[in-house]
Amino acid sequence: VHQSKLDFFCKLGYGKQDICKVLENLGQEALEDDVLKELIRMGSKPQALESQAQPSPVKLVARGSCSTSPGSKWLGEDHGDSSDHLRPIVIDGSNVAMSHGNKEVFSCWGIQLAVDWFRERGHAYIKVFVPLWRKEPPRQDSPIADQHILEELEKQSILVYTPSRKVKGKRVVCYDDRYIVKVAYEKDGVIVSNDHYRDLQNENPEWKWFIEQRLLMYSFVSNRFMPPDDPLGRHGPTLNNFLSKKPVLPEPKWQPCPYGKKCTYGNKCKFYHPERLHQAQLTVADELRAKIRVPLSLGKAEGKRNGSP
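The chain above was modelled as a monomer; its predicted structure follows.
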């Protein structure tokens, strides 16, 4: 009997010590209602009620910092990371640096500008490929500006040096363009370069399609990295759709017909006619036939009436 009552009140959430104390005072044969009244009189509460009564501790957050709790996300932010919806970026470091240096100086600052532009957009995977011999001290025939930027990007695991070595005093350089296209193809990313890689397009038909569809060209305007808003032409995707894995299709915008009500194309007209919203778009010939049929049918009906007795 004692064990059954103990199990019963334990299921209600009361502590074993309080239950045993009440049963010792009232006796083992006490009714359940009496035991419950005594527990309430002693001030004992079920554990569920105690947890509700205790207020949750207030977490102090430093001014200017964001809360790390999962429920405190910005409005409109998905449960997944925004970088998951953006394509990986593979930058042709030599092409970008020489473009920023006006094809005279290997400007490492241009690489930094390109990396910062994609970082601000939220791209998590950014890789820059540069030949290994660019770590050597600059020479008159190959000047380098801001060479310390390469070391900083290498520490951040963004810059990757392609192999090169010297054999009998001559430099042997591996083809860095092959690294760029291969990594971008495997990652299903975007190539940032003004080079067309025609030799690699002829080498592999799959690479040919990939380079044509995923090559992002750019310009430098007053130390500002500027890719085009329409990377694949005026009729292609926007820059945001080009750089995202899940492009957002824009709503169709109907262009009004330049002929207006004088248009003679009828339902074959590809432009927008606001006056035909609630009308069937018929061709001019069909409209004329419909107008001719109405008086003919009326004339036949009147003739039948006159000829009838």
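The chain has three domains: 1-42, 89-243, 260-290.
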